[in-house]
Amino acid sequence: MGITSDGSCRAVRSLSVVSIESPAGLSTHGCDAGDEPLLLRACRGEHVERVPVWFMRQAGRSLPEYRDVRKRADLFEICRTPELAAEVTLQPVRRLDVDAAILFSDITLPLAAAGIDLAIVAGVGPVIAEPIRSAADLRRLRPFDPDRDAPYVAETVRIAVAELDRPLIGFAGGPFTLASYLIEGGPSKTHARTRQMMYGEPLLWRRLLDALADIAIASLRSQITAGAQAVQIFDSWVGVLNPDSYRDFVLPSARRIFSGIADLGVPRIHFGVGTGELLPLLAAAGADVVGVDWRVPLERARARLGAEIALQGNLDPALCLAPWEVLAERVTAVLDRGGNTGHIFNLGHGVLPETSPDALRRIVEHVREHGASRQATADVEWDALGV
Ligand code: 1CP
Fold first, then answer.
1. pLDDT at 15 over 60
2. Each residue of 249-276: pLDDT tens digit?
């Protein structure tokens, strides 16, 4: 495997010629011993020669090659077929040359594997046939044993890792976000029933969140053992809470997850949308990296978190739909604000389905060209920014 002048692992040449039918044609690549991938060094808060880049939701809906696979199998069928799930995991690495792959799965998949009647409905998202709203309902959520209930996930990780010359990120849903799907029965804008249970039935809430934390721990441990080199906890919708509520009702379960995988020694990323006021608490859960959405300037996030925590983010995903000149300027601004120490370039949330893969590819190239030797912008008062 070649190391480029900027120190990154080279793209796997053979990846670009591989089809699903001939996965055995791939050769195995990895970083030479002692040459730890950029992503992992950035996660550890180190100064890197170039900012690493990947995109949340980089696999999937925006890629034509994913849509081709989807014609043959639905989302959960893909996830349960290791060859297909690994193929879809590798697609964005080939096309975009990002610095990391992310496992192709869904945060709700372990719930389905743990006894919940759950379907991914087109245009809606996860829909739960019988929502969990009482202690009796909670009994339907069985303990989750990855080897028994979802062995295809670890197998997907093993296949993908064998093909990759860069890290694979594993993931799990955060406790608030999964609780919300279970309680609401599907996606919700207000998360009203969820917060109703949280405030009104704190003991039931605590039992539910601890059960979800245990599912996340089991799932993440299995992914890491199979070869995932970093993990991300997506507590996407937790930004609906204020800091007091997060601290009292979610932080204990989030801590349980982070400490439950600490001994495995892989970097742990914690992400949620709309979490500007929660950033220090997301870090306090035990994260090495905090994902920042597009609303918070990175230097502001840095000021809130201190130098010990690495940052991931935070381009507005809608900018990928803008003309290239507009997009390029904003990519540079994110690089300027984030600097080269403990910063991983990403969007502030997932890739929008209507995004052109070409825009993502150009962002990666731009980060490669401009993501070297940058000092982070110091946090400044808003007055000084002229607003
Ligand atoms: O059939 C399809 O193709 C439907 C679209 C789709 C895809 C491609 C869903 C349904 N899930 C996925 C895969 C998926 N989900 C991945 C792998 C792709 C990648 O990252 O490269 C990942 C990481 C997820 C994680 C996920 N699922 C999150 C956290 C990330 C985020 O965007 O905040 C959440 C909230 C979900 C739930 C979910 N699953 C699917 C949809 C449409 C949703 C969101 C529903 C909602 O708005 O509440």
1. no
2. 999 999 999 999 999 999 999 999 999 9
Secondary structure string (H, E, C) spanning 296-316: CCHHHHHHHHCCCCEEEEEEC
Domain-located, residue 4 = no
> Residue 380, SS3?
coil
3-class DSSP assignment, residue 230: strand
> Taking a C-beta distance cutoff of 8 angstroms, is the pair 44, 310 a contact?
yes
In a domain, 117, yes or no: yes
* Contacts of residue 325, Cβ cutoff 8 Å, sequence gap at least 6: none
Residue with tokens 């989750």: 144
Q: Label residue 379 by pLDDT band (50, 70, 90).
A: low
**Global pTM value:** 0.91
In this structure, is residue 281 part of a structural domain? yes
> pLDDT tens across 143-189, in order?
999 999 999 999 999 999 999 999 999 999 999 999 999 999 999 99
Q: What is the CATH number of the domain that holds 229?
A: 3.20.20.210
| 387 in any annotated domain | no
| Residue 57 annotated to the active site | yes
Range of the domain at 155: 13-18+27-376
Q: Is 214 a catalytic residue?
A: no
Is the per-residue pLDDT at 33 higher than 90?
no
Pair type for strands 118-121 and 125-128: antiparallel
One of 99, 106, 214, 288 is an active-site residue; which one?
106
Identify which of 57, 164, 168, 346 to mutate to test ligand 1's pocket (most ligand atoms within 8 A of the CB). 57
- How many residues are listed for the chain in this entry? 387
